[in-house]
Here is the input.
Amino acid sequence: QVQLVESGGGSVQAGGSLRLSCAASGDTFSFSIFVMGWFRQAPGKEREFVAGINMRGGSTVYADSVKGRFTISGDNAKNTVYLQMNSLKPEDTAVYYCNANRTFFPRRNYWGQGTQVTVSS
Here is the structure.
């Protein structure tokens, strides 16, 4: 079992920046076996993918809506993944969730409780 705790959310004006953190604890074995991701969900909308990183190798992928503005990174030694969000827009307002996808058997998927990000005009 793995627990994920997000932090770093808050309120910011359009054009500002925030840095989200997701700390993993529990039976991680080796953080490098996980593909980590950030998702977000705005009121009345479905949860959507934001960014992902393979902790083995560090390859990343981004949603088109955040490409060039957000950067995902990770620290295997600290079992932590980050999301640096720059040039924030009001449409970025959502609850941001950390996700951990275990790539080795047994396959498991974990979610954090989320952290609120609010971007005002």
Remarks:
- Residues 14 and 89 are 5 Å apart (CA to CA).
- The first strand starts at residue 2 and ends at 7.
- The mean pLDDT is 96.
- The two ends are 40 Å apart (CA to CA).
